[in-house]
Task: inverse folding
């Protein structure tokens, strides 16, 4: 889950422990390794691009994130990758990348229509003519937010041995496809818990395709899980592969 609280250095250092490598990362790594130039939007600690670089990716790898603390973690282990501070509202590229990805449900933090349209137009601009945009969102039909309850506590141990407990609690929604929640971090020896608040947007496949088409992007593949199964009401994910259309819709 994308969380702006990871702008905090201490929490950024825990990010990979809270989000270990999984099936989704394997899915994206295969795409990254088959593209000569890759932009990872909302790259976080850069886990995906760091792995591709370690595997010997010969082309251009760029990670973009608005949290400086996350990029500190990224640069420590893969300084050869291009790490850029900012987002698609402040950083623009023209026809430079064969692949643009948004992983870790980063797409769901685009909660406003205008913000979503702007970012999709920026993605289209960044892509080469034959480029692809790949990202995932949670399927609203699966109602993942019903499992975000404070009784479901995760524990991780930091590099310094501190045990940190993490839990979520829905504060509002879904309203208009938007769910607001808090994420609480409580560590042994901490003076007080750290609490962040975020709103995530859940889009169904039809609405999602409409926004993409408006920006000049066309859905060419869509999956409901990381094994490339079909999207059904029970599917946890909506994994979308989109390409540039010949001309952007006005």
Result:
């Amino acid at each position: 889950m994308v969380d702006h609280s990871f702008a905090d250095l201490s929490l950024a250092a825990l990010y990979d422990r809270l989000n270990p490598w999984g099936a989704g990362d394997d899915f994206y790594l295969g795409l990254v390794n088959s593209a000569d130039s890759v932009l990872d939007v909302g790259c976080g600690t850069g886990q995906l691009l760091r792995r591709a670089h370690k595997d010997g990716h010969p082309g251009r790898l760029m990670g973009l994130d608005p949290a400086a603390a996350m990029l500190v973690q990224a640069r420590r282990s893969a300084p050869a990758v291009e790490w850029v501070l900012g987002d698609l509202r402040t950083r623009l590229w023209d026809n430079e990348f064969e692949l643009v990805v948004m992983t870790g449900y980063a797409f769901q933090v685009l909660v406003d229509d205008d913000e979503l349209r702007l970012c999709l137009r920026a993605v289209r601009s960044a892509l080469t003519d034959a480029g692809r945009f790949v990202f995932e969102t949670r399927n609203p039909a699966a109602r993942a937010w019903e499992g975000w309850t404070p009784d479901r506590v995760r524990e991780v141990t930091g590099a310094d041995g501190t045990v940190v407990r993490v839990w979520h609690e829905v504060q509002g929604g879904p309203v208009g496809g938007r769910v607001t929640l808090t994420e609480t971090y409580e560590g042994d020896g901490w003076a007080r818990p750290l609490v962040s608040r975020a709103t995530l947007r859940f889009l169904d496949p039809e609405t999602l395709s409409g926004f993409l088409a408006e920006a000049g992007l066309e859905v060419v593949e869509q999956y409901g899980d990381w094994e490339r199964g079909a999207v059904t009401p029970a599917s946890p994910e909506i994994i979308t592969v989109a390409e540039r259309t010949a001309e952007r819709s006005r």
In short: The two ends are 32 Å apart (CA to CA).
